Amino acid sequence: MPDLDLVVKEIAEEMRQRPDRGEVATYIPELARADANAFGLAVIDADGNVALGGDAETPFSIQSISKVFTLTLALGKAGDLLWQRVGREPSGSAFNSIVQLEYERGIPRNPFINAGAIAVTDLILSGHQPREALGEILRFLQFLADDTTIMIDEQVAASERATGFRNAALANYMKAYGVLSNPVEFTLGVYFHHCAIAMSCRQLAMAGRFLAHQGRNPSTGRSVVSPERARRINAVMLTCGHYDGSGEFAYRVGLPGKSGVGGGILAIAPGKASIAVWSPGLDAAGNSHLGRIALEALTKRLGWSIFGA
Ligand code: GLN
User: CA dist 208 to 31, 33, 92, 216, 284, Å?
Assistant: First the structure.
């Protein structure tokens, strides 16, 4: 078995040198300020060993990676009834597609495209004030990562709110079909803020550990979800975590993963490790360009693809 720390450092150095870096997202103006040369990688194995490479300690906007954690919370609240509001099939279309929502009469394809995540956020919000719901999501991440310094980047949230016309269209559309229970501006407010949570690769890899180890944090022994639920969240990550790039990610990396337009990816090697990578330049589907390439190199060198060598 190759030395984990060495492999992580090697990959970080290889990525630092690559000229192809993808395009930083600009549709949320605050995200356009990210440094295209940044690259971070963090891997935490079953024994709790932490391997860090590059800018693994720099916080970035987790964006849609937050949707893994809101899905986990919503399943805790609603159980399988959640699947009446949102499907679990890959979308094959862009993360902010409006046309698909119209075809499917307001029921989003899966919880990771924007429409699905907004429906999931609405469920978490029900019975609470927006700031309570947001506090619950933030505290859940702080608990999972065992780190109370994790915060929301208010400038990113404000920037997204000011320009989030497509998300407002998706939310209003679902409201028209009765899929959302709360006022659209409340649900969107919570959604924009949880997307604006800032975390480093190390914090994110810590937060994902329960998914790699049958629902438990192996270091504390604390159970977060049942083994069955962890398995199912991983299945949705594998099939839907990269939007219309999900097939390509499974083909090349072979792990459940969730991307965000901030350039982060959380990837899970079941039984082995929780992995977070960050590089702000994106590919055409809105997934981190070097993040995917780095994960492909990692799974290949360590033999970690769930599909075998
Ligand atoms: N907050 C972003 C949006 O709603 C999330 C998109 C993403 O990370 N793919 O557009």
Answer: 23, 27, 25, 10, 26
Task: Give the confidence band of 283 by pLDDT, cuts at 50, 70, 90.
Answer: very high
Ligand 1 centre from 96 Cα, in Å? 8
Q: Which of 160, 165, 197 to mutate to test the pocket of ligand 1 (most atoms within 8 A of CB)?
A: 160
User: Is pLDDT of 309 > 90?
Assistant: no
Element (H, E) at 162: helix 154-163
Q: Quick one: pLDDT at residue 112? A: 97
Q: pLDDT tens across 145-195, in order? A: 999 999 999 999 999 999 999 999 999 999 999 999 999 999 999 999 999
Atom 4 in ligand 1: which residue has the minimum CA distance? 114
Say which CATH class 65-197 falls into.
alpha beta
| Residue-wise DSSP of 250-278 | HHHT-S-EEE-TTSEEEEEETTTEEEEEE
Question: What's the gap in Å between 196 CA and the centre of ligand 1?
Answer: 9
Residues near ligand 1 (Cβ within 6 A): 63-64, 95-96, 114, 160, 167, 195, 260-261, 286
- Rounded mean pLDDT of 35-45? 97
- pTM of the predicted model as reported, rounded to 2 decimal places: 0.98
Domain locations in the chain? 4-63+199-302, 65-197
Length of the chain: 309
* Residue % of the chain over a pLDDT of 90: 95
CATH of domain 4-63+199-302: 3.40.710.10
Cα-based angle 112, 23, 56 (whole degrees, multiple of 5): 70
